[in-house]
Specification:
CATH architecture: Clam
Shape: globular
Number of strands: 12
Number of helices: 4
CATH class: Mainly Beta
Distance between the termini: 24 Å
Oligomer: single chain
Length: 236
């Protein structure tokens, strides 16, 4: 699977990009200064939107860049979110694969490898959880406006979020947001080594009535299963 998706979803359980990079990049300041009122209002509106919806689905395009590499790694497919804390990522390019997150576990299946890897997953990780009704932007991050030099015609407003947790394994997240509907259409996660994972959501649809079965991973017959939760003491 693309190394950076796990960095985006579960930096506490994987170290995908750090191995290819050098010394950690300096993290953005994590001071206690209060954000300007206008950005707080904007971020509160983003939070309120994701508190209201039950589920959403979208196509996605992902681009991952390692500091030490000249070429970006590109991938894409379809993603599904459901409150609270459930996700499914169906990759179509560059090769089929599935990632399902539910109930404190993450299942990763690459058909070409005929292998399923099961890992524990902390549903309180702040990188993504506001999208699924678990996290809180104001509580979990310090905020600032980003990208004043964005391209002409770009309709999105950009917000930079720096984790309040000094132990977080990423330095910042940038969100590209529709100003009126407050939908997050772009996320860019920068890890401690300066590597980035940018994801653009397309064709987003809210409250389509996704069934809970979509977030239940069924192991295909004839594949190897590596259950890392058993080795770690069981997980949930």
């Amino acid at each position: 699977m693309p190394r950076f998706l796990l960095s985006f979803l579960m930096v506490a359980l994987a170290a995908p990009a750090a191995e290819a990079a050098g010394a950690p990049a300096a993290a953005a300041p994590r001071g206690n200064a209060a954000p300007p009122a206008d950005i707080r209002i904007f971020v509160d509106a983003i939070q309120a939107r994701y508190n209201r919806i039950r589920d959403f689905r979208a196509r996605f395009v992902q681009e991952s860049r390692v500091q030490a590499a000249a070429v970006a790694e590109k991938s894409g497919g379809e993603v599904f979110f459901q409150r609270p804390g459930k996700m499914r990522w169906n990759y179509k390019t560059p090769q089929p694969q599935e990632i399902v997150i539910n109930g404190g576990k993450l299942w990763q299946y690459v058909p070409a490898d005929r292998q399923v890897v099961i890992q524990g997953f902390d549903a309180a990780r702040v990188e993504y959880t506001f999208l699924t009704g678990v996290g809180n932007l104001d509580r979990d991050f310090r905020m600032a406006w980003a990208r004043p030099d964005r391209r002409p015609g770009d309709p999105l407003r950009y917000v930079e979020l720096v984790p309040r947790d000094e132990q977080a394994a990423f330095s910042r997240v940038v969100l590209g947001v529709e100003p009126k509907r407050h939908r997050v259409l772009v996320t860019e996660v920068v890890d401690l080594f300066g590597n980035t994972t940018a994801i653009r959501f397309e064709g987003m649809r809210d409250n389509t009535g996704l069934g809970t079965g979509l977030f239940v991973f069924r192991v295909p017959k004839g594949v190897d299963v590596i259950d890392m939760t058993a080795a770690a003491g069981g997980g949930r």
